[in-house]
């Protein structure tokens, strides 16, 4: 589930871990680094949204192909290279069983093969990848195509947790799978709580909240009861940040010491943001991030102030 394709097949997260980053080599803090977060390439949504048929539309996705190619080109030019490129869900628009899903997936995989082989890819499952109410079958389809739907990995002393947020949204069709993720998450959070890592960071598709922990329930957030329970678990464990997508706009807020970061899309925009990517710099003390439009990132690269942070010891 990471890195460029080898022999036509993506490396995948298996056994709830990511082989691109062997834990025995990555448990120790080695100094500042950065990674790239993208979300919602969602091949097909731009056409579907423009025609007002988001359920069954989306028979064209040339715009998303070009935008994702631009994102890949911008990432490949970065020097130094990012540690990894994480895509926070909704890889394609067609939900399981819908027309054009196979073709959209094939085109996305083709575009992503151009990512530099030294920049592992990390895939997060979204509602369009699994269905709004996932089933054992749709989860297995995702695992076969992209790798495990939840897992953890270490990079330079930092613990990263990838969650299947559809289990938090509607697990009515697969309650046992949700329970398995819950048990696994508690185990992972116990590692973070014992402060065995420099930082701990979560990736999931659906945000806990868009602006405030107390905001009303919405299609684009988790319900109040779920978000509050999870946010409290995260803060107790010392999780520093949650990075998500789903909203197709930039948003976010804080809860106690937890930073909720909602990044807009590589693909279709539902607000006034640019198609873009988020650059995330991890230092010994802080997690600093900035969203860049693809044109700006392609022309100018990463800001000097962020690059300077990576020179600190």
What's the topology here?
Layout: E1 2-6, E2 9-11, H1 23-26, E3 33-38, H2 45-51, H3 62-76, E4 85-88, H4 101-112, E5 121-124, H5 127-130, H6 136-146, E6 151-155, E7 158-162, H7 166-169, H8 175-193, E8 199-203, H9 224-237, E9 241-244, E10 251-255, E11 258-262, E12 276-282, E13 287-293, H10 294-300, H11 304-309
Parallel strand pairs: 3-4, 4-5, 7-8, 8-9, 9-11
Antiparallel strand pairs: 1-2, 3-12, 6-7, 10-11, 12-13
Helix pairs in contact: 3-4, 3-10, 8-9
N-to-C order of helices and strands: EEHEHHEHEHHEEHHEHEEEEEHH
Q: Overall mean pLDDT score?
A: 94
Q: What fraction of the residues are assigned to beta strands by DSSP?
A: 15-25%
Number of helices: 11
Rg calculated over all Cα atoms:
18 Å
Structural class given helices, strands, pairing?
Answer: alpha/beta
Total E-strand runs: 13
* Low-confidence parts: 1-9
Biggest sheet strand line-up: 6-7-8-9-11-10
Helix content: 25-40%
Major sheet description: 6 strands, mixed
- The span between the termini is 31 Å
Shape: globular
Give the key terms.
single chain; alpha/beta; 6-stranded mixed beta sheet; 5-stranded mixed beta sheet; 11 helices; disordered N terminus
């Amino acid at each position: 589930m990471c890195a460029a394709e080898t022999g036509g097949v993506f490396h995948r997260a298996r056994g709830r871990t990511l082989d691109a980053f062997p834990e025995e080599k990555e448990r120790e803090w080695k100094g500042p680094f950065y990674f790239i977060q993208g979300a919602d390439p969602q091949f097909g949504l731009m056409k579907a949204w423009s025609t007002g048929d988001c359920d069954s539309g989306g028979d064209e996705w040339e715009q998303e192909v070009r935008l994702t190619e631009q994102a890949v080109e911008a990432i490949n030019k970065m020097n130094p290279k990012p540690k990894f490129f994480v895509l926070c869900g909704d890889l394609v628009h067609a939900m399981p069983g819908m027309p054009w899903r196979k073709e959209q997936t094939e085109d996305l995989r083709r575009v992503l093969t151009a990512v530099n082989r030294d920049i592992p890819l990390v895939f997060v499952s979204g509602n369009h990848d699994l269905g709004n109410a996932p089933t054992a079958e749709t989860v297995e389809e995702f695992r076969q195509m992209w790798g495990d739907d939840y897992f953890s990995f270490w990079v330079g002393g930092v613990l990263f947790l990838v969650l299947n947020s559809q289990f938090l949204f509607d697990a009515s069709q697969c309650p046992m799978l949700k329970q398995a993720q819950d048990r696994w998450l508690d185990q992972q959070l116990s590692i973070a709580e014992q402060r065995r890592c420099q930082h701990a960071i979560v990736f999931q598709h659906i945000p806990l909240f868009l602006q405030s922990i107390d905001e009303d329930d919405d299609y684009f957030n988790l319900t109040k009861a779920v978000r509050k329970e999870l946010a409290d678990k995260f803060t107790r464990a010392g999780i520093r940040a949650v990075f998500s997508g789903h909203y197709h706009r930039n948003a976010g807020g804080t809860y106690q010491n937890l930073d909720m970061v909602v990044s807009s899309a590589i693909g279709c925009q539902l607000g006034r943001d640019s198609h873009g990517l988020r650059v995330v710099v991890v230092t010994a003390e802080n997690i600093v991030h900035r969203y860049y439009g693809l044109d700006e990132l392609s022309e100018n690269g990463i800001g000097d102030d962020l690059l300077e942070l990576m020179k600190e010891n």
